[in-house]
Amino acid sequence: MTCMNNDAIPIQGLVAMQQSPINVEENLDPNQHIHGATVDRKNTVKQITKPISPWNVKYCYWTTSGSIVGAIVFFIFTCIVMTTGILIVCFTAPKPQAPKCDFNILRTATNPIEYNYSPRSVAVGDLNNDTWIDMVVANSIVNTIGIYFGYENGTFIKQIEYSTGLGSSPYMVSVGNLNNDSQLDIAVANFGSNTIRIFLGYGNGSFTSQLDLSTSTSRPILISLVDLNNDTILDIVTVNFGTSSISIFYGYGNGMFSNPTMYSTGYDSLPYALAVGDFNNDNYMDIAIANYGTNNIGLFLATNNGTFEEQITISTGYDSHPSSIAVGNFNNDAFVDIAVANHGTNTIGIFLGDDNGTFANQLEYSINSGSPYSIGVGDFNQDYHLDIFIITIGANNTGLLLGHGDGRFSDARMNSTGSTSSISFAICDFNKDKRLDVIVVNNETDNIDILKGYFEGFSLPKYYSTGYLPFHIALGDFNNDSKLDLVTANYYNNSISVLLGNGDGSFAGQITYSTGTSPYFVAVSDFNNDSYLDIAVANYNDSNVSILLGHGNSYFEDQITYATCTFPRSLAVGDFNDDGQLDIVVTSYNSNNVSVLLGYGNGSFGNQITYATDTYSQSVVVGDFNNDNQLDLVVANYNSSSVSVLLGYRNGSFANQMKYSAGTYPQSLAVGDFNNDGQLDLVVANYGSNNIGIILGYGNGSFTTQITYGTPNHPYYVAVGDVNNDTYLDVVFVLYGVTNVYVLFGYGNGSFGNQMSYYASAIGYCVAIGDFTNNNRLDIVVPRNDDKYVYILLQYNRGALVHEISYASGGGSDLKSIVVSDVNNDTRLDIIVSNSGTNNVGIVFGNGNGTFKSQVFIKMPSNSQPSVITMSDFNGDNQLDIAVATSSTKQVQMLLGNGQGSFISQVTYQLPLAYPPLAISPGGGILPAGIMIGCALLIRRNLARKRQRRQQQVTTVASREHGHQKRSLDHQVLNLLLIQSACYIVLTTPQVVNLLYSTVSSTIPNRTADTLAINGLLAFAAELMLYIFPVASFYLYTLTARTFRGELIKIFRSLLIPGMRCGAIQIAPVDNDSLATHPRRKTQVSNE
Questions:
Q1: CA 459 to chain centre
Q2: pLDDT tens per residue across span 881-895
Q3: Distance CA 699, CA 701 (A)
Q4: E strands within 23-84?
Q5: CA–CA dist 276, 237 (Å, integer)
Q6: Mind telling me which residue stretches traverse the membrane in this protein (predicted)?
């Protein structure tokens, strides 16, 4: 049988050859001839014999059509690929858990100690006496402690490490003054070497290793420094794993300690944590132990000789496994209470103490997002009630339970730092903002998270009805229920509205009282000495003030009026003549003076006495500005851009004014001590110059030049108070025509930070601040100047913490990628790196001489693990930006540069990629397609040139036939390249479109879940088409290239048809005169 092409004419007996009867394959003699045949037009056969050089060729006895074989092979290959894919999915997909037949036995407590090497513990203190909190971390993996020194900007820099000994595996660290030299020392519990290592501090941040204290066969897992025997010298208490005990080392005050005294916590108790406190009010410190194994709290009550009684146990519940314990006064009863983290039942247990060392039954609070691991206490929301901070083993690894001050707590508010296994933390205020911060040690990520406490702001406003155009507001308790109420001066209604507060931030309906015409300003005080608040109102168009005396039950008598100068704009209250009776001072907008009305103490007032000021007196405040114990006046003069100071003479009279420059058109004044020097200062709203002016007082009646802070629009009214509870006065103000209220937060030194705005939903001419919810936090009320409502902004009371930064233990930044470029346009090359271990991007700015500045960090999302980076101008502003691929979150983050070395992180809505990105480069899917098309065109031109040269060399019919076949092969190669290019464009264009759509739609907020799901499906389809291209290339070669397809057919024949016989023959190469030996030749018809 002869293997032939489909279009060949079968001719028998045309090929003469000899074949061995034994071997299918035979080597022919080099001088032997192979006979070819041609057929002339008369169907006569002409023998042609040519001598040729031989080589071995495989040939097969096969007669089936080549196209059918190709189709069969293609089908078989497709089946194999599909079967392989199905098997991969089946063997790698998660299997549902079938019901099992379990052999149940009594559960025993598991060991909560994890033997992995990572940062285990953190302690804090000022180790170098620079007044900033530092931290020390126990690193088990390298048997060291690492010291991070704190700086005033709230950051830490690791400076030094100290060895804790070979194989020591430090487990916990504590800080205290162990040798009474006023310098902090460090004590480390070494789990691996059964020792306590003492590092005595020099006070400059360096330490000396003094001695090791042996714990014998016990492995210390917790250490506490406390004075147990009332000798003012710190002692050491350790919790010991393995021996179920605690050890006490009594200090001698020189850095030396006694041999340990051990107390058993019970068989198999697995003590895991301790806390100390005077539980029975005998002035001796007692010890409370969390016994993980026996599900209880162990109490060791101290005796008067420095020893402890036998352990008393308090159950924490079946399978509760308490892992941490903390103490504090949770119900303000002067007795110490206990809080425990019940790791086994996912609860926080509260035990309220009595004065004899006994405790009430446990109150439990569920933690739904993980198992609580450690617990601590502190006042995080500054309401003077202790709160509870916890870390958990779970997705949301930090939580806060806010205390109500009566032993009850709110439900846990959980958050995540990106870790699922936090194991230790320390609570402190390391940036001196009067808010508690937290340092958290994470087990599986080997890093340290810094959680900073911050002012969370205000809720969205709620509104309550008043009279029309409430121009001014005053606050007071008008019904003696200890809840703050408010009163508004309703300019267009000629009335005041009294709104009684409910104590929860809400208010009852208004009660209205008539006033004079156009009430412009309102103030409250007790004018008749009956202990009930009264109300004074400045009536702008009547040129008088109204006095409404209160009854203490929210009701007021009808007004009594007293004449003032024309157009009274504001008023203030004080005892100006030192007679113990309250007086009133009123500014007059048109008469360039102030009016003083001296009170008689019965609610009535004398006739006005006027004192000259400058033009258009707008606002007045009172205070003792020269420290003579006599009230003085300060007046804002609107037209002269100044303030007038009138010093009081104790008899109700005032000295002539002294003027100090303010901004343009000073509109409102307020008083406070902004630099904590004990002297009163001024704040003024400069309407015309769009700024807030701070004028510091010297305490002698004179003032400094004002310091200004710009505002977005005309400031109209200012108020003063400690809004964020940091003990420093802040400034609250409203702007003309703006529906926000603004706060300038004070630093306590006379300067202020950046202003923060909060949505108020009202354009008001006034603002007032007070505690409407009785939570020791100031809230804000703004009247709406074009309607009949007041808007209440309640301050959040949640103890907010923000994940500020992470540090890698042992310097483990885990650098993954590096790029060199000039990011700040100073013509000097800078270095940009991705730090996977610390989840940030670092920039090292070059000095141009081969040296570099310290690394500047750009924070990336928690646990994102940035891997590779690239730089380009991605937003078309001619400034370099950074694209960062994150291996953990499988996304690409954009950092947009401003050309000055700083970058802004762009909000990312991109769905995670299927796999962690390994490389990233600027550009798109069109570039590779363009390269492929360009190469195809170049190949086409090259083939055309070859064809021209070939045509010049054609001299015979055989040569022309051979050239025709070569041209056919050239066209086949060209077509294959063009088809591949088209296929690439078709399969990659959806991904390019998807990327463009993702970029455009990333600015769309609040996209629905359905939209996100559809976008995710389309993104998956586009990515799937991208992965199909390599497979499509294989099929393109198979379907369009005969040579490739023929070789593939031979491979499958040899694999699938074992009985197929193949042979080897020697054939000659084709020359220009004969094509007789071409394996797929056509018979040539002779002209004879």
A1: 21
A2: 888 888 777 788 888
A3: 6
A4: 34-40, 45-50, 56-60
A5: 10
A6: 68-94, 918-939, 973-993, 1013-1037
